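New to this. Help decode both lines:
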Amino acid sequence: MKACLKAALTAACVALAPANLFACAACYGASDAPMAKGMNWGIVSLLGIIGAVLGTFAAFFVFLGVRSARASETESLQPDLGQTPPTNL
């Protein structure tokens, strides 16, 4: 019962809050202001860095897969020198 009352009270506070509370100080101003432009460039640069790191991570696993396939291919082409051929007596 307490959880239901707490959820209802939270929902009522959010629903009755003024709309100005939902905007942050940087977003509330003009969209062509220097602060908004700087924030947009910051978002773009962080997305670029994250994309580069994830792309490098994926490329590394592709490299490992290609290298493993190449190694298993050359391994299957080479004769097994550890075994002696059977002899017929």
